[in-house]
C-alpha cells in the first residue's frame, strides 16, 4: 500500500494551508503568498487538487476514481467530489474526535478499532452513508489511548451531518455532508476544470 511520507508542515507551507486543518497545532510562519510570483491557470488548478489530496491523505489514482464517481452523479461535480472524500471512514473518525489527525485516524481504522453498524471495518476508504453508526470497538474502549482521546478530543463539536454526544464512544451519520461543512478554503471548480481538459 502506497502512502504519503512528506513532512506535514513543509507541505502545508507549499500548499498555503493551515496545519490546523489537518489537526496539527503547530503554526507555519512563512506567508506563501509573499514568496510566489503570479501563477498560471494550470498551476492554480494543480495546487487546489494537491491541497485536497494532501488534506485527505489520498493518492492520485484513488483521487481520480473519486472524481469519476462524482462526475457520474447528478449535481455539482466539485461539491460531490468533496462529499465523497468527507464520507471516508478515516475522515469521519477524525471529525468525531476519535483521532487527533486524519493520518492517526487512518492508522486506527487500519488496526480495526472501529465498527460500522456493529461490524468491524478496517478499510479507511470505506464510504459511510446516512443511518450508519460508527463506534469504537468494545475491546478498544478500555484502552488508555481511547480513554484519553475521548477525554480531550471527544468533547469537540461535530459537523452538523454527524450526531454524537460529547464524550460518547459512538456517533451516527444523520445526513450527507454539505459544501458549507468543509472547514478549509478550497476552490473545487478548479479541480473540475483541471480534470475536464
Number of helices: 10
In sequence order, what are the helices and strands, one letter per element?
HHHHHHHEEEHHEEH
Q: Alpha-carbon distance between the termini?
A: 29 Å
Proportion of helical residues: 40-55%
The radius of gyration over CA amounts to 17 Å
How much beta, percentage-wise? Answer: 5-15%
Which class do the helix and strand fractions yield? alpha+beta
Q: Average the pLDDT over all residues and give the rounded result.
A: 85
Mind summarizing the main beta sheet?
5 strands, antiparallel
Low-confidence stretches: none
Shape: globular
Report the strand count: 5
Numbering strands along the chain, what is their spatial order in the largest sheet?
A: 2-1-3-5-4
Overall description:
- It is a single chain.
- The chain is an alpha+beta fold and 197 residues long.
- Helices cover 46% and strands 8% of the residues.
- Helix 3 crosses helix 10 (188-196) and helix 5 (77-86) crosses helix 10.
- The longest helix is centred in the N-terminal third of the chain and has 16 residues, at 41-56.
- The relative contact order is 0.14.
What keywords describe this structure?
197 residues; alpha+beta
Topology record:
Elements (H helix, E strand, L loop, with lengths): L7 H8 L16 H4 L5 H16 L3 H13 L4 H10 L2 H8 L5 H9 L3 E3 L2 E2 L12 E4 L1 H4 L2 H9 L9 E2 L6 E4 L14 H9 L1
Antiparallel strand pairs: 1-2, 1-3, 3-5, 4-5
